[in-house]
């Protein structure tokens, strides 16, 4: 199952971009044996339309995917194991591609959020979108590691 991350805003070169690239590369390597990957990042940039315009751009970036997870502070807080099980279940149900949408400063438009198969929170704190990308990329890698039974995730 391919994975697509669609995010509002451009991440410039620097430590956050390096983290995202590193964890997505690890996800691709570890996930391959688990039927997961590759993962791609698609960035969109809304100029003036706020959340509504961002939602349209995100929808274009994720079109054709079978499952949608929206990152939102109002979402469910899952453990890493629960997240891995959800990802594995989507794969086992025959999804060929899953998308993860990260909104801009104001979050994800409620209409797009309503379409999600899963609304995921990275915790009670709000994170900048650059860090949210890195944290999601790491959790994707961790999920692939859990499903593969590697020692990366320790209980």
Number of distinct helices: 5
List the strand order in the largest sheet: 2-1-4-3-5
CATH topology (fold) name: Alpha/beta knot
User: Radius of gyration from the CA trace?
Assistant: 14 Å
The first-level CATH class is given as: Alpha Beta
Distance between the termini: 26 Å
Strand content range: 15-25%
Query: Outline, from the CA principal axes?
Result: globular
CATH superfamily: SPOUT methyltransferase, trefoil knot domain
Task: Calculate the mean pLDDT score and round it.
Answer: 94
Number of domain units: 1
Structural class: alpha/beta
Strand count, sense and barrel status of the largest sheet are: 5 strands, parallel
Descriptive account of the structure:
The chain has five helices and five strands. The chain is an alpha/beta fold and 155 residues long. The chain has a five-stranded parallel β-sheet, with helices on both faces.
List the helices and strands and how they pair.
Elements: E1 2-8, H1 15-32, E2 39-44, H2 50-62, E3 67-77, H3 80-92, E4 97-102, H4 110-114, E5 118-121, H5 129-148
Parallel strand pairs: 1-2, 1-4, 3-4, 3-5
Helix pairs in contact: 1-5, 3-5
Main attributes of the structure:
155 residues; alpha/beta; 5 helices; globular; Alpha/beta knot
Describe the structure concisely.
The protein has 155 residues and is α/β, with parallel strands linked by helices. Helices cover 45% and strands 22% of the residues.
